[in-house]
């Protein structure tokens, strides 16, 4: 009855607004409705759809206290050049209120090549720090107490190797592995679909991932064994719904693989974490975070029969959208990042990296990284956005949008199930194609002026080329080559050969957990390229077949 | 009937192919014949592919910062193979300060983030040999 | 550079430029093909076709590698459709063959169909001849088996292989009706997918309806998983078995004779079509005639008689 009155009132309003818009043309191309009312969330059931923070389905957040307890972890992604340079940057960030570390590795490290490999030419130390052996890792974490800090490592195909290096460094510091806190990205499926730093084919890659789940459940119990990442899917051009749908589909595949390997779902699911992008459209992003928690909770409870609440919680790290930074008028990026930060915080993220204004041009300078970190601190301490939990809960628009994104995500997950799951959907090129289509549409919308990017296709101005960009010169390759030579001269080469031979033999037997063997090779100072090299020999290499 | 053939390639280890793929599609929609060769290629592979398809344009994309090493190497190898009439262009996260050096090395134009694809199309039409 | 002379000296740039000349119908194309013709006829030509998504280029990549292992040089002509909207094309086969790029015993050329007044099969045929004269032992011609002109191209190969995959549903009906019957070899790719057995049985049943070209030859059905390089050796064995069969029975000569006949016929057709296009279709008189036809002031039969008698005089 109440709704009928409301419907009548709404219709009258729309007629009036339509008439007014004849005089003042609205931006009619926009996707959201002009106005949202209770009519848009008919059947809304607070307890079923939202619940309380820390309770199923976790729409409002995964912890009961959220930021009233403590703020999200302010985790700045950093790393460039040598371990020495990056160590300096890490210590600077920690001294300035950063609350966790996040390591960026260079591409040769991410793809399992030593800095001296011909494939590494020109790439050493460029997009992150170059790590060739345990010797580099010791320098990277010099004077950083690994029992105090939590460290996230953006490493996927060779995640096991870098994790073992971290464990080995901790051991040298006297920190046992069960005290270590942090995350490895370890999400190979999105590498095939969107990011490109794969090494091995899917089957051995999935084996490595489940080996890590198993190993960490026993020896590194506080470690997040995977960060199932939508970030890069979004960066590759997907929509918000696609970001969470494809990522949760990947998550389903990992859970299935671990269960198939004989693990109990509640033994590992609590250590799964996610990684979202904080994009430009603030309210859409908030809705995305909320919808993603609801979808994952239902997946874990209903599909996998998880019993522990922890297994159903989608805990998420967030990074502001790198692809939304503009090379034009780079100072505008500070504002974009601030809004994206607001979205991530109102969305209830557990940790956050904020991009620096100059990242469409180069790696960030210390000054611009500081602004990015300060942006988080301003949002945390000054904006009031973190003062109450899920502040947008109950907004007609945000609830309607949360429902819409959830529905779109379920539709995709269903479609991917039909195709045989995420690995099959990727093998068939389905996910890549969907992402590419969205990316192309985005670009064409900009070029046609249907989408405005300030400073790029509107409000443009002549400007001087920016100064003071961070440069990584070509000498890093040489420095790393010298370090590798020194390591190889100092280590017991017979022992290294023996460890590598043992690893190689184990690779051929799929029942063996490879992590302990990798750890032994790492501790003998085998290089990352040598370790990945023997795995390449047995596993082969993945080749992308993406058509356009 | 001489259609313009463009090889779109990503040298080095960088996997960010959003831009390369968007450009490849835009070039196709502008009537070019586009050979997209994917990620993680050596300059040698790119130059040989350019030769075999006798392309008019080689469009390189790189976001990892290795452009100063890899772009000129592609140009050099093309010359070695006698592909002297190819227009080589580049795009990606490339600081302004690097552009003069790249141009001196034979990269005809460098397109930085935010460039509309129509500008790439126009440049190719105006400069293809 | 004397393109023909350089091709015969195995200059890769010359081969590439030669193919461009025929592809773009440059002035020197006829000259090149005239001079090259007597140097051709050594290569064994294999057509590979099948519906989109069948994994043809991945399979072609693997077959090329297998022939290389057996000491043969390989040329590949990979044909992709031109977009009817923009006239552009994405030539997507090479991405699956980038491993082959550093092998001097291999040469891959991507071609777009480009459409218009035919000529595609002639151009592809010329590219094959240039690779043949260059000294390639084996030439693989890969096309999507959808359009008639693409099918025509592979039909002229010495051995034609049709690639299908399980799970295409009703599409199999179309294939049954169309391209399957041109296959000397049938390959079920992605054979680890559900439905491979069923597809195999269906295809066996269809083979009961034998075709004439293959009297005495029952097309073998191979199963492959090209992405994992499984089954490639058997496919190459089957190709060679078919070649042996054709040679023993003298059918290879028949096929090649038929191919030459169809090539010459095509060349004549193309030439005649172009002549008509230029001298008849693109004239003001023709436009007027069309107008008259539309107003029903005349009828098409006498119009055609009139044109033909003028053209053939």
Task: Explain how this protein is built.
The complex is a heterotrimer of chains A (548), B (129) and C (313). In chain A, 51% of the residues lie in helices and 7% in strands. With 548 residues, chain A is of the alpha/beta class. Chain A folds into 2 domains: 52-447, TIM Barrel (Alpha-Beta Barrel), CATH 3.20.20; 476-539. In chain A, helix 6 links the parallel strand 3 and strand 4 (181-184). In chain A, helix 3 runs parallel beside helix 5 and helix 12 packs across helix 16 (396-419). The radius of gyration of chain A is 24 Å and the shape is globular. The model of chain A has no long low-confidence stretch (mean pLDDT 94). Chain B is an alpha/beta fold and 129 residues long. Chain B has a single domain, classed as Cobalamin-binding domain (Rossmann fold), CATH 3.40.50. Chain B is built from 5 helices and 5 strands; from the N terminus they run E-H-E-H-E-H-E-H-E-H. Chain B has a 5-stranded parallel β-sheet with strand order 2-1-3-4-5, with helices on both faces. The longest helix of chain B has 14 residues, at 67-80. The relative contact order of chain B is 0.20. By secondary structure, chain C is α/β, with parallel strands linked by helices. Chain C folds into 2 domains: 1-39, no CATH class; 41-250, P-loop containing nucleotide triphosphate hydrolases (Rossmann fold). Chain C contains 12 helices and 8 strands. In chain C, helix 7 links the parallel strand 6 and strand 7. In chain C, helix 2 (12-23) runs antiparallel to helix 5 (120-134) and helix 5 runs parallel beside helix 6. Chain C is globular, with a radius of gyration of 21 Å. The A-B interface holds A 107-108, 110-111, 113, 118-123, 126-127, 191, 195-197, 235-237, 323, 326-328, 360-363, 436, 439-440, 443-444, 446-447, 453, 456-457, 465-466, 469, 471-472, 474, 544, 546, 548 and B 12-18, 21-22, 24-26, 28, 34, 36, 38-40, 42, 64-70, 93, 95-97, 112-114, 116-118. Strand 2 (33-36) of chain B pairs parallel with strand 3 of chain C, so a sheet runs across the interface.
């Amino acid at each position: 009855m109440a709704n009928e009155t409301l419907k009548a009132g709404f219709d009258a309003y729309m007629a009036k607004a339509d008439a007014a818009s004849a005089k003042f043309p609205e931006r009619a191309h926009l996707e959201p409705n002009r106005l949202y009312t209770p009519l848009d969330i008919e059947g809304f059931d607070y307890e079923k759809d939202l619940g309380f923070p820390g309770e199923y389905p976790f729409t409002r957040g995964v912890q009961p206290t959220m930021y009233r307890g403590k703020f999200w972890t302010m985790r700045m992604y950093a790393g460039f050049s040598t371990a020495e340079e990056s160590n300096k940057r890490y210590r600077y960030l920690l001294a300035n209120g950063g609350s966790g570390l996040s390591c960026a590795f260079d591409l040769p490290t991410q793809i399992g090549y030593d800095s001296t490999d011909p494939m590494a030419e020109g790439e050493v130390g460029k997009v992150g720090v170059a790590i060739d052996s345990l010797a580099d890792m010791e320098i990277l974490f010099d004077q950083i107490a690994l029992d105090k800090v939590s460290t996230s490592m953006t490493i996927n195909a060779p995640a096991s190797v870098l994790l073992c290096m971290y464990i080995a460094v901790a051991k040298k510091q006297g920190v046992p592995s069960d005290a270590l806190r942090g995350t490895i990205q370890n999400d190979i499926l999105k590498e095939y679909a969107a990011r490109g730093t794969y090494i091995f084919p899917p089957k051995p890659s999935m084996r490595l991932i489940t080996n890590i789940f198993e190993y960490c459940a026993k020896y590194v119990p506080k470690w997040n064994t995977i960060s199932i990442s939508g970030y890069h899917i979004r960066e590759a051009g997907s929509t918000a719904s696609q970001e969470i749908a494809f990522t949760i589909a990947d998550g389903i595949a990992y859970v299935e693989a671990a269960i198939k390997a004989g693990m109990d779902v509640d033994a590992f699911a609590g250590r799964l974490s996610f990684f979202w992008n904080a994009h430009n459209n603030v309210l859409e992003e908030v809705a995305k975070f909320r919808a993603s928690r609801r979808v994952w909770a239902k997946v874990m409870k209903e599909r996998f029969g998880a019993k522990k609440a922890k297994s159903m919680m989608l805990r998420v790290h967030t990074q502001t959208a790198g692809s939304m930074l503009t090379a034009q008028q780079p100072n505008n990026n500070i504002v974009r990042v601030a809004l994206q930060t607001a979205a991530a915080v109102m969305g209830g993220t557990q940790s956050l990296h904020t991009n620096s204004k100059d990242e469409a041009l180069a790696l960030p300078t210390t000054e611009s990284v500081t602004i990015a970190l300060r942006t988080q601190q301003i949002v945390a301490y000054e904006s009031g956005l973190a003062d109450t939990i899920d502040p947008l809960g109950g907004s007609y628009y945000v609830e309607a949008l949360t429902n819409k994104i959830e529905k779109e995500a379920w539709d995709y997950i269903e479609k991917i199930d039909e195709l045989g799951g995420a690995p099959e959907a990727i093998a068939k090129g389905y996910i890549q194609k969907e992402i590419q289509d969205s990316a192309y549409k985005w670009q064409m919308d900009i070029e046609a002026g249907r989408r405005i990017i300030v400073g790029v296709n509107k409000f443009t101005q002549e400007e001087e080329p920016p100064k003071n960009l961070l440069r990584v010169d070509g000498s890093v390759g040489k420095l790393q080559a010298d370090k590798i030579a020194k390591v190889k001269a100092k280590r017991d080469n017979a022992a290294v050969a023996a460890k590598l031979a043992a690893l190689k033999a184990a690779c051929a037997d799929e029942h063996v957990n490879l992590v302990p063997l990798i750890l032994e090779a790492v501790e003998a100072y085998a290089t990352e390229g040598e370790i990945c090299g023997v795995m390449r020999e047995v596993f082969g290499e993945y080749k992308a077949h993406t058509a356009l | 009937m001489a259609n313009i053939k463009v090889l779109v390639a990503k040298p080095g280890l960088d996997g960010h192919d959003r831009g390369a793929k968007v450009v490849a599609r835009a070039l196709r929609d502008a009537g070019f014949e586009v050979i997209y060769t994917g990620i993680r290629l050596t300059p040698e592979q790119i130059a040989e592919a350019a030769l075999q398809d006798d392309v008019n344009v080689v469009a390189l994309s790189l976001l990892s910062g290795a452009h100063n090493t890899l772009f000129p190497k592609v140009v050099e190898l093309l010359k070695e193979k006698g592909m002297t009439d190819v227009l080589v262009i580049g795009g990606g996260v490339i600081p302004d300060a690097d552009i003069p050096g790249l141009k001196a090395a034979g990269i005809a134009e460098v397109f930085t983030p935010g460039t509309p694809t129509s500008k790439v199309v126009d440049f190719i039409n105006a400069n293809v040999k | 550079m004397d393109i023909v002379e350089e091709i015969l000296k195995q200059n890769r740039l010359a081969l590439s430029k030669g193919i461009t000349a025929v592809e773009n119908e440059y002035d020197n194309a006829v000259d090149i093909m005239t001079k090259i013709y007597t140097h051709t006829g050594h290569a064994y030509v294999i057509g590979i076709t099948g519906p989109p998504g069948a994994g043809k280029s991945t399979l072609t990549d693997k077959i090329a590698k297998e022939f290389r292992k057996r000491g043969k040089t390989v040329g590949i002509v990979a044909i992709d459709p031109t977009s009817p909207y923009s006239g552009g094309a994405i030539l997507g086969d090479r991405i699956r063959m980038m491993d082959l790029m550093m092998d001097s015993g291999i040469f891959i050329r991507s071609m777009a169909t480009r459409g218009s007044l035919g000529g595609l099969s002639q151009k592809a045929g010329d590219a094959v001849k240039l690779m043949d004269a260059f000294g390639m032992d084996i030439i693989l011609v890969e096309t999507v088996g959808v359009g008639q002109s693409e099918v025509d191209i592979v039909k002229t190969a010495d051995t034609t292989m049709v690639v299908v995959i399980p799970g295409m549903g009703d599409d199999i009906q179309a294939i049954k009706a169309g391209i399957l019957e041109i296959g000397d070899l049938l390959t079920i790719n992605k054979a680890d997918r559900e439905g491979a057995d069923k597809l195999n049985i269906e295809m066996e049943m269809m083979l009961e309806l034998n075709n004439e070209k293959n009297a005495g030859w029952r097309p073998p059905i191979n199963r492959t998983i090209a992405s994992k390089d499984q089954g490639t050796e058997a496919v190459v064995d089957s190709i060679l078995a078919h070649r042996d069969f054709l040679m023993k029975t003298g059918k290879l000569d028949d096929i090649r004779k038929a191919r030459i006949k169809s090539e010459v016929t095509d060349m004549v057709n193309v030439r005649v079509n172009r002549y008509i296009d230029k001298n008849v279709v693109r004239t003001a008189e023709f436009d007027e005639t069309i107008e008259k036809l539309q107003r029903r002031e005349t009828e098409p039969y006498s119009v055609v008689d009139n044109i033909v008698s003028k053209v053939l005089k």
